[in-house]
């Protein structure tokens, strides 16, 4: 399973969830698989996907929020796992697609390819609900059966990107349509 | 006059409804008021750049967030200010104590303190300097400007604001 395969399963369960998606190939692949106004594609500021998702979850307590983060990016901002667990919003799922590499820059290895275990880090940060998935068939079921709570979902995949183009949307457009979708409600 | 209370009321009355905070000696009185009043939600953050991310998410969801940080944290936030906040045109408020200036006792604060205004200018972050009690009124103007223009702004609190303390 590669990241693209994992994203294929994730988009199957999307209804009105708000999604913050990590920059680079994760966002490009998500755009290709299922573009929707409720997707906020990051274009820069690597490391901040789950922090943005936390702010969103706090400000939209009646909507489910997904962060689609990666191993390289969450390793840049591990402190935010502690902040998220501390605030513990009931509507937030942090999904880390861990392909043990910096996928958007040439698949250089990250430390999760050797000794670092992000699920244990999430446990230490204070998450109570932690799921580790390495089988593609389990993704849809696990995400669907999740109740309210603050969840950490680690999906272990192989490295590699799909052959997808860049996102033909400007940053302001991504913001505007995302915020308009919130005004429309669900 | 209680400067910290005046600061707090000015920020509150300008419509800020979420604080992202890290401690600092200069703003400890303000942080204490935020803790005690419990009128405005607060998230304590682990690093300033993280706070920028949380503020952006909160803004997308309809809140008016402000960071309360030291100017030292500007250094680790610059990429997020450029490639997230300014790229997407998101108005958030960065309230910073300006450490490293006159009467600074910690030598390590000085190098960053000396370049803070230059850095803010260099990254085109419009800055409101508050160095006297009268200037606290400018916070409201700063927030209005920010929200009208979708441009984030910095508010720099100078130690002269607290007089001899």
Run of helices and strands of chain A? HEHEHEHHEEEHEHEH
- The quaternary organization reads as heterodimer
Task: Kindly name the structural category of chain B.
Answer: alpha/beta
Q: CATH homologous superfamily of chain A, by name?
A: Thiamin diphosphate (ThDP)-binding fold, Pyr/PP domains
Distance between the termini of chain B: 13 Å
| Biggest interface pair, counts | A-B, 34 and 32 residues
Could you name the CATH topology of chain B?
Answer: Rossmann fold
Task: Note poorly predicted spans of chain B.
Answer: none
Account of the 3D structure:
The complex is a heterodimer of chains A (186) and B (165). Chain A is α/β, with parallel strands linked by helices and 186 residues long. Chain A has eight helices and eight strands. Chain A has a single domain, classed as Thiamin diphosphate (ThDP)-binding fold, Pyr/PP domains (Rossmann fold, 3-Layer(aba) Sandwich), CATH 3.40.50. In chain A, the strands form two sheets. A six-stranded parallel sheet of chain A has the order 2-1-3-4-8-7, with helices on both faces. A two-stranded antiparallel ribbon of chain A has the order 5-6. Chain A is globular. The N and C termini of chain A lie far apart (32 Å). Chain B is of the alpha/beta class. Chain B has a single domain (3-156), classed as 3-Layer(aba) Sandwich (Rossmann fold), CATH 3.40.50.970. In chain B, 44% of the residues lie in helices and 18% in strands. In chain B, strand 5 (126-130), helix 7 (138-149) and strand 6 (153-157) form a beta-alpha-beta unit. The two termini of chain B are 13 Å apart. The mean pLDDT of chain B is 96. At the A-B interface, helix 3, helix 5 and helix 8 of A face strand 2, helix 3 and helix 5 of B.
